[in-house]
Amino acid sequence: MICAAVCASIAFTSCGSSKESAYRKAYEKAKAQEMAQSQQTQAEQPVRETEQAPVVTPLVEAPAQQTVTDNNDNVPVRSENLTVVSGAGLKAYSVVVGSFGVRANAESLQNTLSKAGYNAQVAYNSERNMYRVVATTFDAKANAVESRNSLRSAYPDAWLLMKQ
Question: What is the rounded distance in angstroms from the CA atom of residue 46 to the CA atom of residue 147?
Answer without folding.
Answer: 61
